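Reopening: pyridoxal kinase still failing for me.
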Amino acid sequence: MTAYNILAISGNDIFSGGGLYADLNTYTINGLRGFVAVTCLTAVTNQGFEVFATNDQVFKNQLNSLKTVDFSGIKLGLLPNLAVATLALDFVKKNQDIPVVLDPVLVCKENHDIEVSVLRDELLKFFPYVTIITPNLTEAELLTEKSIKTLDDLKEAAKILHNLGAKTVVVKGGERLDSDQALDVFYDGEKFEVLSYPLLKENNVGAGCTFASAIASQLVLGAPVFQAVKAAKNFVYQAILHSDQYGVNQHYAED
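Support: Ran it again with your exact input. Result attached.
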């Protein structure tokens, strides 16, 4: 059996629900060998939920350490500042022949806003070099500079993001469009697909990270892009459905 190496360029979630923890768990469940380059640490302080970017040189050294690893895919998560984002982009440009999934994190569930104005422009530079981007509704609003209130708005946002250079887009609508359904819109420049699952409001921290890393995993395993998105959507739904308050998936833990 082929052992595939897959990289997560993502941050540390102090609560271990999202970020690199979600990525590595997802890779393992999919039978892949996961690696990680850590972009930041997080902590809850008197200032609230804070993000501490990895030192530029340390992050560069991490990526240089991995340059001889034969990766079959990459998932990009939280890039906390311009310096880290620039180094990550350089790395991606050197690996354009493999699937790359960009989760353009501009806001966190903990309501911490990452530096938006500069980082938004930097994230747009990734679009031509990645296979698919997976913004949530708020991130799609920030990237497109458009308000999203309806399913048609969600489709229009996906189209704008494609026109900005993204080859394929899935915009996660979440609960803001439908109180009972988690609606996502997929767009590849030719057709729209709406994916809908019953909305699960409990234990969903890390859902976006897991979704993106599940897509990356499926792409590495050879799935076409839309099939990878569909499989990832189901994967996240099942993971939340069977999880406890700490995000531990009881279904997979018992297998």
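The beta strands are 5-10, 33-38, 40-45, 48-53, 71-76, 100-102, 132-133, 169-174, 181-187, 192-198. If you still see a failure, please send the error message rather than a screenshot.
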